[in-house]
Amino acid sequence: MPEGKFCNKTPINTEEQLKATLGDKGGKQYYEEMNHLDVDSDKLWAAIQKTMKSRTKTWLEICAHCGLCAESCFLYQVNGRVPEQVPSYKIQSTLGVMVKKKGKVDNEFMQMCMETAWSKCTCCNRCGMYCPHGIDMGVMFSYLRGLLYSQGFVPWELKIGSGMHRVYRAQMDVTTEDWVETCEWMAEENEEDWPGLEIPVDKVGADIMYTCNAREPKHYPEDIAEAAILFHVAGENWTVPSEGWEQTSLSMFAGDWECCKDNVLNVYAALERLKPKRAIGTECGHAHRATVIEGPYWAGRPDGQPPVPYIHYVEWLAEALRTGKLKIDPAKRIKEPVTLQDSCNYVRNQGLKNVTREIISYIVEPGYFVEMAPNREHNYCCGGGGGFNGIGLYREQRNVALRKKMEQILDTGAKLVIAPCHNCWDAIRDLEEEYKIGIRWSFLKPLVIKMLDVPEHLRPTEE
Amino acid sequence: MYDFLTGPMLWATFIVSFGGLLVRSVMYVKGLSWQLDRVAYRPQMKYGIRGGLRSILAFIIPFRARLWRVRPGFTLIFFAFHIGLLVTPIFLEAHNVMLKNAFGISLPTLPTGLADVLAWTCLAGGLFLTLRRIAFPEVRIITTFYDYLLLVITVMPFITGLIARYEMGDYNFWLAAHILSGEIWLLALPFTKLSHVVLFFMSRMQLGMDYGIKRGGMKGTDMAW
Ligand code: SF4
Ligand code: SF4
Ligand code: SF4
Question: How far is the CA of A289 from the centre of ligand 3 (A)?
């Protein structure tokens, strides 16, 4: 059958399309249409031939079928260790078969692939560390997602998500005006407590250009205010761009590579326009991955680097504490057992494991920090990564996936979890909602603000 | 028969096998794409090499990578199997005699007792690897007929070699069978996933470069494999 009205091979490019697809509540019609969507085998095979090079090809071929990757995958662990959750099986039975059949696969097969790619893998890249051959399923599943997306087999929310990025260049319908207004509003709102607080928009030549996650202006504007407060107290010369402020990429989870490129170029254009000395992104793992780790490659930058040094929030915070730009009042340090969620997207994917612990050393009273086991680059995904959090169709599977993190947190005995990643934060919130284990969770910004030793001249004057 | 197997056939085998593996390595490198793989191989070569070597070393040294430490039993058998597989044929006295006759060179040779132990270890290892494919559901589900076939191709030279060595049955027959199975093994190297003899290094190097360049190496934090 031809393509459906909502479920088809064409990306969402207009606001009208976007609204219409959004109107299909829960993707009811979308998934119904998916049952009749044809596979364009020639196009699929052509795409594979063009993009499947040494790395993926060799991985598919030399996988020793040894099963050593099984235990490394948290989804295998929490799903009763069923063999269908063995990473190697998951990829061989999907991408492997697709390649073997030279793209001649049917609708049913594609739907199975979709389910596997989005509900049995969060692209957390952990298995790659445990495979003797260095076969990284996270990378291969991303690749598979790209193929599936191009054929229209993508969960409804992610089709919309990448559509949002295409239409608004943000994962939510936050326009330039909305964004700038939110910044002004947040500055005003907090001016009284923080005299002189500003959120400078489009200042050329600042030391720092700050970028964030569209969820912040949309749902947690206080996060922007908190960033502003900390920059203000640290005495930074900073700015936010009016355009190119959004660094997340649902398109990366959807496998919409064209859109990924467009978005990251938009951020880089802001860098070129405002010429800051460096850029700092918010507390979000996947946004950092999209803009700083993978982004330069989508943008075609051969050195693999963004146009100016671009760091994650935890790097800036560690630096500000280290250099004394921000001072912590020792009396206000955390004095209860507290643990830290290592976000796969900047720990396993960029090695930012020590800086977070450096921050902990400033804000937690010695003796109260409890590590999860395992931790750092061996840590498990929060359970909601790779888009999993947002996909209604796979909510149940996602809830099961949260159990690994639950066990890890329970084992630490801590009631407070620091989660400097938006998605991990959401997952831990959902985890508490679902399993009620009595924990609290927090980004770093609000914690640090509460324990700041604010210099006299920055305090509000008492009337 | 013996003359043919150790003469022209052996030559052809070496050429096809080693030539084939060389071709595969070259093709691998040529098929890398910085943009598709998202690794700046060339501009960040220094970080890449460092990460690549770390990655290879972590996995060829027993108990170095976390993988090897969390599964000590498997690790022992796995390394014993691979060491036996590599060391025995290269340093076996009988092989070196042939080498000497053909090219006038020879390598240090293994004492017979040790060679025997290594060969038996290999067989035991092969048996274990086969049994675990059958016993463990997580391995069974990914195992295909082809995996068993490759195991057979790999251990056959050892089985036939040991039979000939202990002179069970017709020595000449088993010697010919040994040589032939060895040649089959060598010929299979470039064409099957036994190509991992070289592609393992390629793949590990690649992932190591990835980690060495964009996934932490340039941040000064080495990956704890
Ligand atoms: S550990 Fe690696 S080689 Fe072994 S089955 Fe898993 S992916 Fe394949
Ligand atoms: S990338 Fe993560 S979720 Fe996906 S198969 Fe590997 S370990 Fe499992
Ligand atoms: S949500 Fe957090 S833990 Fe999960 S994959 Fe993303 S960064 Fe990793």
Answer: 11
